Amino acid sequence: MEKRINEHPRNAAKKRKNSWVLRLSLFFWFIMLAGLMAVAGVLYGTSIGMLGPLPDVAALENPEINIASEIYSAEGLLIDRFEKEKRIPITYNDLPTHMVEALYAREDIRFDKHSGVDGEALLRAVFKGGKEGGGSTITQQLAKQLFTKKRSPNKLEAVKQKLKEWVVAIQLEKRYTKDEIVTMYLNKFDFIYRANGVEAAAKTYFQKEVKDLNLAESATLISMLKNPVLYNPKDQPVSSQHERNVVLAQMLKYNYITQAEFNAIKDQPIALNFKMLESTVDEGISAYFKHALRMELENYFEDYEKKYGVRYDVYRDGLKIYTTIDSRMQKMAEEAIKMHLTDLQKLFFSTQKGRDLAPFYNITKDKAEEIFQQAMRRTQMYKDMKNRNMSDEDILAEFNRPRDSVQFFTWDGKEYRKNQSWMDSIKYHKHIIQAGLMSMDPHDGTIKAWVGGVDWNYFKFDHVKQARRQVGSTIKPLIYATAIHQMNYSPCHQISNMPITMGNWKPGNAGYPYTSAISLRDALAKSVNMPSVRLILESTPKTVIQLAKDLGINSPLQDDPTIALGSSDITLYEMVGAYSTFANQGIYIKPELIITVEDKNGKIIKDYEPLTREVFNREVAYTMVDLMKGVIDIGTGRSVRGYNVTGEVGGKTGTTNEGSDSWFIGMVPNLVTGVWVGNEDRAAHFNTWQSQGAKMALPIWGHYMKAIYAHSGITSVEQDDKFEKPEGIEERWDCSNNSGFYNFGNVGIYEERPRETQSQTRSSGTREKSVNELITSDLDTISFD
Asked: Which residues of 227-364 form beta strands (DSSP E)?
C-alpha cells in the first residue's frame, strides 16, 4: 500500500495565497485590456463619426485657412478686405529656443515621444487629480483651437469634444512634423487685446518681434497659454508674474535653465511695454459702410444657403465684392464731416464747461449716472471683469481708478491722458457729436457714399441704417406729397396758417407768425408747422403712412397727426431713399450697396437687382422738387448757396424738440444726399439756436457738394444739371389766379378723392370749415402721447 504523505499546512496556505494573487493579477490585466479595448473602440467609433462629424482631410491639411474677401469700389479700386483677424505668421526658425523649451516644460514635456495623445500623462493626470499638470498634449490643444474652439458647458458634449480632439490630434501628427505643430499652435493662439498669434503678442506686450524676446518675456507669453485673461501681464501683473515663475520653475526642473538664471529673473516684475496693434477688422475707407456691407451679405448668404445648400463666409471664402461706393466721393463725405464737426465739437465743449449735468439737459443727476453706467456695462472691459466674477461694486471702483494712460477720441487724432479713469473717458465721449451721411444716385439706386459715424474704433453704431432718430421737419415733403397727389394741389395753393388745438396736443409754429393763409411753396420753404398739420388732417395719417411705406420707410410710424411734425423715428437710409423718389420722377428705387459678388472661382453669386416701384406720377414728383427748390431759394436752406453751389437744388432742413436731432436732405438732379447730426444720447445737445438743421447738418452737405462740384469731371455730377420738368407743367399749375389746383391725371397708386369733395374745398373758407369738421368729429378718438 502506497503511503500518503500529508502536505505541511504552511505550504498549503502559501499555495492558496499564490492562487489569489494570480487571480487578482489576471483580473487586473483583464480590466486593463478591456479598458484599452474600450478606449480603442471609442476612438475608432469617434474616428468614423459615431459621435458626430470630424474635420475632413482637406480641413486637416489646410486648417482654418482664411482667404480674405476683397471689396472693390464702383470705379474698380480695391478699397478694403474682410479679414477675420490680423495675424502675423512666423516660421519655426523665428521662435527663440528658450520659448520652445518653455512651451515643452509648461505644456508637454513628452511632446517628442508621443503621437498626439500621451497615455502616460493622461494616467498621471487621472491618478494625481491634475496636481502635476493635465493630460492634454500640445497637439490636442491645437486640435481644440482649430476645430473645437469653445468647450461645451454640457458634460456629455464636452466628453465627446475631448474624444474628437484625441482623434484629430492623432491625424494631425500623421500630417505634420513636430516643428510644424508647435508653429501652428503658437501662430493660432489668441493672447487677447488683438494679439492673435505669438508674433502679434510679442509686439503688443513688449513692442518686439518674437525672435528678439528674452527668456523672461518668452516665459510670460507661454504662461498666458493657460489662461490669457487670468494671467494677462497688463491686467493682472501679480498673477502673471507668479505664473511666469511657474514656467521658469518647470524649465529649471527639466534642466532647460540653470538655478542662477532662475534666481536672476524670479523676483523681477514683468517689463511690460504694452500697445495694441491697430485693428484691421472694419478699418479702411469706411468702417461703417463695411459693417453695413457685411450685415447685408450675411443675410443674403443665409437665404442663399436655404435655396442652394451652400454657405459663404466673407472672412474665409476669398470673395470679390464689387460695391456701389465711389471711393472719391466717400473720401469727400468723410472730409466734409470732419471739416464741420471739428469746430462744432469745440463749440459744444465750451458750452458745457462748469455744468454739473454736462453734456445732458432736462434730466436728473441719477438719470445721468444711469446713462454713464449703462455705457460702462456695454464695454468689453466690463464684460471681461464679470466673466472673472467681480462684483459690480469692484468693477465700478476699477472704472473710477485713475490710470497712467487713457485713450480719448479727438478730431486731431488719438490722445492719451494721464491720471484719468475709464469712467472719465465714458463721460468725455458722451460729449462727442455724431453724424451720419448717405449719398445716392436717385436714378439707379446706387449708394455713392456712406458715413455712419465719426470713428468706428470708439463708436460702433451706424447712424445711416442702424440708428432711428426723430426726423423733425424732413417728414413734411411726405405730408405735402400725399396731399398733392390726393387732392391735386399746386405749389401756389393757399392753406390756413392758424393754430389748432386737438385735445392735449397744441401744435404751433416755431418762430413764424400765424396768418390766415399761406401758399404751399412758402409754407414748406419756411418750414411752417400749421399747414403740415392741416394737410395731414385732410389726407389722414393712414394715407401718409401708406405713402411712407411705398417710399421704402419701414420704421414704425404713429397713426396720428403728430407725424406731420416729425415725431417718428426713421433711419437716414430710409429718408434718403424716399427723397430720391422725388428726383426720379416718382419711381422708388431701393438704395443698394452691392453691384455683384463673385466667389473665388469667378462665379457670380449675387447680382445687382434693385427693387423698384412707381409711387406717384412724374408731375407730382416734379411739384415736390419745385417746392423743395423753394427751401433753398427763399427758405431755411438758403445758406446752401454759400458753398459755391449755384445749380438746381431742392432740399429740406429738420430739427427736433430741444435740438436732439438735426437734419438736412438735399437733392441735385443726379445725386440725393442726407445728413443727420446729433449726440449719442438725446438728452445731450446744444441748448441754443445752434442745434437747428441749417446750422448743424446743412454745412456738411455744403462742404460735400462743394468738393463734388470741384471734381465734377470725375463724379459726373455737374452744376448745370437740370431736374427733368414735365412739359407744360407750369401752365397747368396756373398760379396766376391762385386757384391752386390742376389735373395731374390718374397715374399713381392712390385713389383720387371723390369729385364732390374736391369741389367743396376749392376756396380757403370752405377748406377751413372742412378742417374744423375733422377736428370736432375725428380727433376726439385720437390719443396723443
From this structure: 320-323
Determine contact, residues 637/694, Cβ cutoff 8 Å: yes
Distance, in Å, from the CA atom of 504 to the CA atom of 500, rounded to the nearest integer, reads 11
pLDDT digits 0-9 by tens, 472-483: 999 999 999 999
Residue 469 burial (10 A CB sphere; 0-12, 13-18, 19+): buried
Alpha helices in 540-598 (DSSP H): 541-550, 572-583
Q: Using an 8 Å Cβ cutoff, are 707 and 336 in contact?
A: yes
Place of cell 446750422: 695
List the Cα angle 337/708/481 in 5-degree steps: 80
Please report how many Cα atoms fall inside a 13 Å half-sphere around the Cα of residue 595, on the Cβ side.
Answer: 17
Strand partners, 69: 82
Provide the CA 224 distance to its chain's centre, in angstroms: 30
Nearest alpha-carbon partner for 198 in 176, 174, 177, 219: 219
Q: Directed axis angle between helix 259-266 and helix 237-253, to 10°? A: 180
Q: What is the dihedral of CA 527, 531, 536, 538, to 10 degrees?
A: -160
Residue keyed to cell 392735449? 504
321-to-95, 445, 573, 602 alpha-carbon distances in Å: 37, 17, 21, 11
Alpha-carbon distance of 104 to 17, in angstroms, equals 46
**230 φ, ψ (degrees, to nearest 5):** -70, -30
Helix crossing, 529-539 with 764-777: angle to 10°?
70
C-alpha cell at position 191: 493672447
Question: In this structure, what C-alpha cell is assigned to residue 213?
Answer: 524676446
* Grid cell in block for residue 570: 426713421
Residues 6+ apart with CB under 8 A from 415: 407, 408, 409
Helix (H, G, I), strand (E, B) or coil at 439: strand
Q: Which three cell numbers stand for residue 675?
A: 445728413
Average pLDDT over residues 34-45: 55
Nearest to 665 by CA among 651, 655, 648, 676: 651
As a whole number, mean pLDDT of residues 351-380 equals 95
CA 325 from chain center: how many Å?
18
Q: Please state, in angstroms and rounded to a whole number, the distance separating the CA atoms of residues 589 and 552.
A: 8
**Distance in angstroms (rounded) separating the CA atoms of residues 282 and 716:** 29
User: How much is the pLDDT for 159?
Assistant: 65
The predicted-structure confidence for 92-135, as pLDDT tens digits, reads as follows: 999 999 999 999 999 988 888 887 677 665 555 444 444 455 55
Residue-level pLDDT at 751 = 27
Contacts of residue 109, defined as CB under 8 A and 6 or more positions apart, other chains included, come to 250, 254
DSSP H helix total and E strand total for the chain: 29, 18
Query: How far is residue 250's CA from residue 168's CA, in Å, rounded to a whole number?
Result: 28
Q: Nine-digit cell at 90? A: 512666423
Report the 3 state secondary structure along 195-235: CECHHHHHHHHHCCCHHHCCHHHHHHHHHCCCCCCCCCCCC
Q: Which residues pair with 196 in a beta bridge?
A: 190
Mapped onto helix, strand or coil, the DSSP state of residue 372 is helix
Amino acid at 426: I
d(C-alpha 239, C-alpha 201), whole Å: 18
Task: Report in angstroms the alpha-carbon separations of 70 from 62, 165, 547.
Answer: 21, 33, 38
| Residue 700, amino acid | I
314-326: per-residue pLDDT in tens? 988 889 999 999 9
What DSSP letter does each residue of 582-630 carry, written as one string?
Answer: HHTTTEEE--BSEEEEE-TTS-EEEE----EEE-B-HHHHHHHHHHHHH
- Dump the DSSP string for 28-72: HHHHHHHHHHHHHHHHHHHHTTTTS----HHHHHSTT--BPEEEE
